[in-house]
Design goal:
With about 300 residues, the protein is an all-alpha fold. It is built from 14 helices and 2 strands. It has 2 domains: about 30 residues; about 250 residues, Cytochrome c-like domain (Cytochrome Bc1 Complex, Chain D, domain 2, Orthogonal Bundle). Helix 5 crosses helix 7 and helix 8 crosses helix 13. The protein is elongated, with a radius of gyration of 26 Å.
Amino acid sequence: MKELKILAVVVFFTLVIYWGVEPFAHSQMHKHVEGDHFAYSDLPELTKTGDAANGQSLVMGAGACLGCHAMESQGMSAPMDASMAAASYGVNPPDLSNIGALYDEKFLAALIKNPAHALNVEHKFDQASGNMHPMTQFFGAGGDIDQEVADMVAYFKSIAPQEITPKTAFDNACGRCHAMRYDNYTQLGDTPSFDGEKEALAHKIKVLEYQDHLKAYMGKLPPDLSMIIRARGGHFLETFVENPQTQLPGTSMPRVGLTKAGYEKVEEYLTEIGDPSKSKREALGPWVIGFFVIFTLLAFLWKRSQWRDLH
């Protein structure tokens, strides 16, 4: 029984140190931010029921969305390639095919009406000083602007696929600014195979040129995200994607606007690339704990049998 008492004392003080000291140290080193669960409570609710048919007309016409964006699912390619778009806007505008499935509808509505406000980068783009956001505001087509915006959102939701792969979610939400070197992915997408060194070098130059435009637009090159899932905790990553300003005030990174489900798709891709053995490791955990429990029991019984005549 003496050994059990000693074990209990060791376990008790180990838990006190871990649960008392470690969380305290973590709280001092990392700011804790309460998330909004992707509710975007600072943005107004949509008060109108959207008409997808009218939204299509607006997107194709007065909204002028296709002047900058692609909509590949509807057979409409981007008006310029990614490098030329980055030279014009700082970053390549996203394809609109999937946005209705990935992004919160309140965010989409706010983005159409006031991009800098929706993206939470008004500290960087100030209309009063003439520093306009590259994405042009929609001022309406002559009718009720709230209804028109609701119609456009309804159209984007109507053409969005039911299922989106984690990589597609990452590509739309993050991939135009961030690379994933462990997946051979740059801001221009997957790096293709080349027949010769000349073609590979030409592609690398395109990537570097895009990155130069991106650095000028963002202030510095956004980091590679290959290991972000392991370098940062889940809570930090979720709240940072939800609203970068809460974790890093003044950052140039915009609010992404993902729904909770959209974020989970992005997180799944980050985990797949940065921590591919996570599921196997977690499955092995109970077996390791079980081994130690059985080993401890056997060791205790062996000790009793060996020391029985000495007590």
